[in-house]
Specification:
The protein is α+β, with helices and mostly antiparallel strands. The chain is built from 4 helices and 9 strands; from the N terminus they run ββββαβαββαββα. It catalyses: tRNA(n+1) + phosphate = tRNA(n) + a ribonucleoside 5'-diphosphate.
């Protein structure tokens, strides 16, 4: 697929073409108190992800052969251009939606039979937001689980590698007729359709979340978004794995 320069009046991409994600940097082991952690930057968006292990099964997992993984998501007050009050409302719809997405995505990458009678908590905190915070949180959460797995193997706590898939996510949007990969905030707010695609490194689809913003799109456009999303995830995960 050939990338064309953005038409006049559309958001610029700061030197990257339409199908190229923003620069990605990740550092694991960033929190000395957490058994697994990672700091991830995707463009100007920054996420700190930590993993904690509780030696207690989730209530619905008692007596079962595997443990459980749950995720929490929060945005710091100055993650955006204006200060936002700390979110103390556990019923916040957007936060709850993102946490459920993160939990589903990260549970798909790990064999929880290695954590029987335990609960893994993956906390993703947005330090700086410039679009794509939920997809960056999936990538950061995976990196933190990789850090956890490596530490447990080296400590002898686990004898088998618990991660069964490399899992990541990417945002894809249509601005006018242009398909763009990894939208920043300026692009996201003018997209007429966008998807957050969660997939594995080998192209298996886990979830697609999003839709049209300015009226219906065609089935062909949706499939194009989905296909580009899966391809973008593969590229982003190569960057993550290279830096772990």
């Amino acid at each position: 697929m050939t990338s064309l320069p953005p038409r006049p009046g559309l958001p610029l991409r700061e030197g990257r073409d339409l199908l190229t994600p923003r620069p990605l940097f990740v550092e694991r082991g960033i929190n000395p108190h957490a058994p697994g952690s990672a700091h991830l930057k995707l463009g100007r968006t920054e996420i700190l992800a930590t993993v904690s292990i509780e030696d207690k099964p989730a209530p619905h997992m008692r007596g079962k052969k595997e443990g459980w993984l749950t995720a929490e998501y929060a945005m710091l007050p100055r993650a955006t251009t204006d200060r936002q009050a700390r979110d103390r409302n556990l019923q916040n719809g957007r936060r709850h939606e993102i946490q459920r997405l993160l939990g589903r995505a990260l549970r798909s990458c790990i064999d929880l039979r290695h954590f029987r009678n335990q609960t893994l908590y993956v906390d993703c905190d947005v330090l700086v937001a410039d679009g794509g915070t939920r997809v960056a949180s999936v990538l950061a959460g995976y990196a933190a689980l990789h850090d956890l797995s490596d530490r447990l193997i080296h400590a002898g706590t686990l004898t088998e590698w618990p991660l069964i898939h490399a899992v990541g996510a990417a945002s894809i949007g249509l601005i006018g007729d242009e398909l763009r990969v990894d939208l920043d905030y300026a692009e996201d707010k003018v997209a007429r359709a966008d998807l957050n695609v969660v997939a594995t490194a080998d192209g298996l689809l886990i979830e697609a979340q999003g839709g049209a913003e300015e009226g219906p799109i065609t089935q062909a456009e949706y499939v194009r978004l989905l296909t580009a999303g899966v391809e973008a995830v593969g590229g982003l995960l190569k960057d993550v794995q290279r830096q772990l």
